[in-house]
Amino acid sequence: MLDLPELKVVKPSDTRWLSHERCVKAVKASYSAIVTALNNIYEQTHAPEALGIIKALCRPSTLVAIYLLDYVLPQVAKLSRALQTERIDLTAITPLVDATLNTLDDAMLPAANWVLELMDAKNEIEEVTDITLTTESIATFQGQVAEPFIRMLKANISSRFISQDIVSSFGIFDPKKVPAADSSDFHTYGEDLIDVLLAHYGAELPAKTAGGDEYTKEALISRETREEWKTFRSYLSKKPKGNLHLQLKELTTSDMLSEIFPNISTLANICLSIPVSTASVERSFSKMKLIKTRIRNRIGQSQLSYLMKIAMETPETLSSTQLNDIITVWNKKPRRIAV
User: Fold this and answer.
1) In angstroms, how far is CA 327 from the centroid of its own chain?
2) Domain map of the chain by residue range?
3) Which of 77, 118, 263, 306 is within CB 3.0–4.6 Å of 225 for a Cys-Cys bond?
4) pLDDT digit string, tens, across residues 292-314
5) How far is CA 43 from CA 40, 129, 217, in A?
6) pLDDT tens-digit series, residues 220-274
7) What whole-number distance in Å separates Cα of residue 239 and Cα of residue 241?
8) Rg (the chain; Cα; Å)
């Protein structure tokens, strides 16, 4: 009626931790309304659950924590969503992680954005609760709770990206990053990053001869890999500027390229198997569980494939032109019901 967006308190899930961001945002936006509604429920029904939630929400530490989390969780969620994109720019991982860590540091400043926002909402909060907010109480919370929490969160993020320099090195396979063949940077492009990859993935591995004798061999032959890169670099510079994902797929699926560049092809296979590039696979299994339920367990393979493509590839909103195109395609086949 008022043409306002619907606010719904999302239940946080342990397996879908991004739901915590939406939950905190909804609670913060509706804080006064939630407290007022719970007070009315308790006055009418004397429900102990309502009283317990009221007491928890009306603690100063709870309120300050809500505003802190509303600042922190979106920063971490942005990093997570960036890493879940199908065509992630691997060279951007290190800057993204560093930017997230620097933004988290800002949460501990006395004049952090979330602190200023909390002080702006002070009068509205004090109207519906007995909470009295002061600069000193917020500073105490920052020192005793916020700073240890931020330090632990930063340490957790940093521990997950120990090999971010190695992952970023795979960005040399992106055709858009290759300098022009007539530029001064072209003849040395990527050589230092190939050395980084060789230092990590070129370790000696145990192997056996045909007679069963054990020996060690290089997973990637360093000298041959460097020579292959010089030729492959020229190949990339002459190609249309596609994206990294398609280039890696070409390296791993083309028999010709695998034959000419066996070591480079091995690096491409490694890149496609690293965790940051498997989010789409995990997402597809999640969609499949939502589509093929116990009630629809007899759905055929081809029908399941079509429904999964629609669920995963269709944008959230369709333009009128796209809708008309869909209707046109639908009407091309003879059907009993006209659309």
Assistant:
1) 34
2) 19-162, 167-277, 279-332
3) 263
4) 888 888 888 888 888 888 887 77
5) 5, 15, 77
6) 677 888 889 999 998 888 877 777 777 888 888 888 888 899 888 888 888 887 7
7) 6
8) 28
